[in-house]
Amino acid sequence: MTGPPVESPATSAGRQPVWSAEGSGWRDRRMVPVAIVVWVSCLSTHALFEAVMDHYARPGPSHDAEVRPPWVPIAPVVTSATGVLGVLGVLGALGVVSFMGVSSARRRLRGAANADGVRHPSRSVRHPRPRSWRPLWCGTVMTALGVLGTAALIGGLATLGADVVRWHDPAAAAARQGAVTVVVTVRVRSPAVASMRRTSDCQAEVVVRAMDVRGVVRSSGATALLFATGSDCGVLRRGSGIEARGTLERARFGRQPLWFTVIGGGISLREGPTWLDSANNRMHDAFFAVTGRLSDQGRVLVPGLTMGLLGQDHVGDGTGGDASRGEAPLVDATYARLLEERFRRSGIMHLMAVSGGHFSVLGVLVRRTGSTLHLPRNVVAPLQIIAYLLLAGAMYPSDSLLRAVVMGALVSWAWLMGRPAQAVSALSWTVVAVLILDPGMSRSLGFALSCSAVLGIALYARPMARMLGARMPGALAEVLSMTVCAQAFTLPIQLLMEPEIPLLSVPANLLVAPFVDIATLAGLLGMVLAPCAPALAYPPIWVSSVMTAVMERCAVWLSDGSMATMPWVEGVRGALAMAVIEIAVVIVLVLWRRRLRRRDAAGHGRWAPHGWQALRRWLGETRSMLDGT
Length: 629
Fold this sequence. Notes:
629 residues; ComEC_N; CATH 2.40.50.140; 59% helix; disordered N terminus; alpha+beta; 19 helices; 4 domains; single chain
């Protein structure tokens, strides 16, 4: 005789079962505060470390090598470490103490289990009441503070360690003494692009492996931006190892801390790129060779939309043509600058950066292929991760690309483990992992823009689409909600880069949205076919250029006139002011919506179908009538 079904503890306690929407985790936002705390901790540690180190590195009589004591070189490190650990240690200790207190209270409430698995309270049969300073809500808050304090401590320690290593790197130490002529051995980690300095033809990101200063060779691991001219640009192939003689100095602007300017003819190839880097380099050269047959707008926009590198910025391998002299392809420089400015003023410049759109398209393609072939999930998910890594290697490296590939890999791994898609949780874990492994990313505006856009879309795009769907077609509501949410979350960060508000960014994104996916797919197909079949690669690349021509027309139309942008306050003040205004607008809208709901619930509101609802109902009734006849 079987007994009654046993109810799970979660269900019997009145909570949602583990398989519900709330329990499955697709609305899990618990890691968002952790990611924010880690980000703030990394930024604060960077600022504190630089302030302390700049104070001790300031020239003066007290810093003379003959008069200062031997402990002075490590004094800034000790001071900055003490400050960071003093602030973060308090939070970490608070977290440990609160966790121990909450665990102790829960053990006393549960008691010990006997042989039958029945728990009895440790003091009496009745559950003891918790102490007044330790109610349930207090325990939850203290546990949350403990987790946040631990996250802040981990982020601060990771940043402090990275800053100390970077400060004592031989290349950074030599650059702090001023511009110095050295011989370096570097590994090129990005394709060569047109230089942002007029004194050079091209630039590439490199990692310094060794440095020879006055006959003394020292190993290094610093990252730098290398500038070259003439035929030296043809040697800068992604993944290759080179030896160069030039001037090393601290960067005047930009994210890279060091600049290395090659003295003419001072580059020699020491090690070729790997087979994967060689394949990507050949694919890029073949792709740009095919796009060279397009019009100017296609030569500029198709590479930018496909791989994140505008056509006028490409520098070839030096096998012929203008690339052998280290020049960019023959694109009208004035037209290219004007086109880039129009895209920026119209608010669609983000289309020229590789982000989640490429990976979502590739992920859907891999999943549908696996479903067609009836492949199991434990085969499709690893293939999806491999496809993401290959796509990332074929694109121009950027901070938004790093966010997209890490987040895509986390989502695929969760799918492999049988977990549902959790965009907010995956984004939070991506931020935490990237910042701990590379704390310098906390100061990257590109990484911040990508993360904030995804966060806005993941949190509020679906509710806004449901709200707008009652007044407009569903497809239009989805595009509009995604655009508004992304723009709202990224606008304060955009103002840090450019103190102008693109007033027409929402209509511009709505106009170009139907053409972006087609242009991206056609461009990726053409890039894959270009190395082996240039003739077959041209038709999809031409289709992509037709789509980008529509984007160009929209940018030209919307960017003309003085009403395209509105000036704003510069710097952090402008960003904070915009954030406050956005929060105030959201609060007003929420209060207004609640008031309307209360009015409708009281029966004072008059219901009437909106225009789109009435049209949709009329179309449905007409179709049913015609089908019935």
